[in-house]
Request: fold
Amino acid sequence: MDKRDVGSGFVISRAAVQEIMRHAKFESPRECCGLLLGSALLIEEAHAARNDSSDPRRYRVNPEDHFQAIQVARSSGRSVLGVYHSHPGKPPAPSPTDLAGASYHDYVYLIVSPQSEIEDPVSAGNLKAFWLRDGQATGVALRMESPSS
Ligand SMILES: [Zn+2]
Reply:
């Protein structure tokens, strides 16, 4: 997806936010990672993946889990929109390693700083979205779906 097509940004389901927070807290202090499934600008589901990095402060999405997420998405008429990972005890901002390792230009990258019980981590600034391209991070607007939507 191209930058100019994003308009007002991505919407993420409450269920996906809860799954990302659960996964991040479960793996903390290790970083966690996973894939984001949905359509167009709606992130509907977070699909947890194994982190292949031996460094607890880095992540590398397990290739089999990545492939499986693509299969799950396709089988339900959706696609993999991006990747999420966590920054335990650090702000949700891309690290130089994140920038260097971002190999999917059409993926949106979500970074979460896991905190205890927050109703809306997106509004609280604990879950943020970025494009990571050519060694540069660009913030992308993200909001959690309202209860009625
Ligand atoms: Zn990172």
